[in-house]
Amino acid sequence: MKRSRKAKIVATLGPATSSQQAIEELFLAGADVFRLNFSHGSHADHQARYDIIRGIEQKFGRPIGVLADLQGPKLRVANFADGKVQLKAGQAFRLDLDTTLGDDRRVNLPHPQVFAALQVGSELLLDDGRVRLKVQRHGPDFAETVVLTPGELSNHKGLNVPNVVLPLSPLTEKDRTDLDFALAMGADWVALSFVQRAEDVLEMKRLVGDRARIMSKLEKPSAIEHLDAIIEFSDGIMVARGDLGVECPPETVPILQKRIIRAARKAGKPVVVATQMLDSMVHAPAPTRAEASDVATAVYDGADAVMLSAETASGDFPIDAVTIMHRIIERVEEDSEYQLIREASRPLPTGTTRDAISAAARQVAHTLAVSAVVTFTSSGSTTLRAARERPDVPILCLTPDVLVARQMALAWGIHSVVAPDVRSFAEMVAVAVDIAHEQGFANWREQIVITAGVPFGTPGTTNILRVAVVEEP
Asked: Which residues are catalytic?
């Protein structure tokens, strides 16, 4: 199951893709990682899909990543007496903790943390920004506002508070229950919603430990202000353009996307671009030209992976969506302009041995036109530094840990194989040569570049570079 492309595809599973046949077809069409969205579905639903994924993994012998995406806090207004109201521009409207049914003058907002963080002049966005309010007066249990953008407001519509850091943990009680289940189930990555600052990620790390990798979803402007610190403590980053596009002006979202990708690339952390990438394919068999360009732009920008949400979870054409995304990525990676951009955007290596070795491996691979870069890793560190360099050739990750192999499925250019641990240089070369040939990455008499760390099996000790010829036995 060798893929020809470097950027990866994350496909969300849902009602449209719950059967063994549908999930296998998604995998064969090009999905590298499957997302289980804990905003929807029961634990039994997620367990059934997870079991199917692991069966497919066994059938095809390729590690598959599973991303458990936690819902996070959802700020919503309560109910109206008539189910909905029509708000007019310039009118007064109050949000408060009174549980009485709302009307066109006020409604209950059962989130005292919001009132505690507001300032006069703060803007509140309701129903994905369709209704916009401005705070004129506030207290610990109310906010009096004026309607800036009029519209209909109905029961349980969402609330966004841009440019305000809310005193809320990103983990609700539901999230904590879902997290325990996802970790027990065996999720490889866990996505944390509502990240505002580095402390949110640290709270998650204390709960997860080394049982999974943490992906921080950047969907609030406040997270951008703490971008480098959030990236430092995260294992991966998701550009969650849905909520980010609600709280930020639309014209800034493409700029933020490029900034986030560049910062994650510099840190050597995998970065996923998500939300509405092929949105029209929820109900159409082909994307718009603008959507195809959007996917291509993410690949040109250097994203490790692009993600499908409703397109594969509940859409009418889930397999087609993965297929066209696969084709777009392949076409971009064949483009000479992509090669130039990749060279120009490569971050400088840091002053560490592992970065020096990884940068040298890329250069040797280019100069000698080798067939693959082979990395031996126990933690994934060696392999991710190799991916940071974006070599011309595939990266073959050899690890004794199946969890690491599955986690690497998300990162750019990496093909993972669970391999026995090595104890000597001779064994390292023999295993690398055998697997590179067996997996179809190198023919007889071709060369490969091998990186590893000594002592073998010690995380973060990349300090060996070896060029080997794939000799016939």
From this structure: 35, 76, 217, 275
